[in-house]
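call fold(seq) -> tokens
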Amino acid sequence: MSAAFKAFLNSPVGPKTTHFWGPVSNWGIILASVADTKKPPEMISGNMTGVLCVYSALFVRFAWMVRPRNYFLMVTHSCNECVQLYQLSRWARAQGFMEKKELGGPTVKIDPKP
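ret:
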């Protein structure tokens, strides 16, 4: 076995720790969300997707602040944040939250010369 591989195996964020297997298991959430992009947006839960966005944003920060830095966890949650934000935008569009709305009322013209 090479020295670099042994160092990886025995590192504080290597495969012998939860700092490695936690992010690996979180990829299941990401893969499921990517698969859900093929489903109609009416099936998306806005509450759950919003919670997953907050969850991933918090864990991106956690992965950056924890010592030793867990770049694998940070990348995992960054990817999840991107997918969840996309799903949230699909849900919001389907609910009509992202439609352009015409502002009513009279048009006021401002004279540039006083």
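The longest helix spans residues 71-95.
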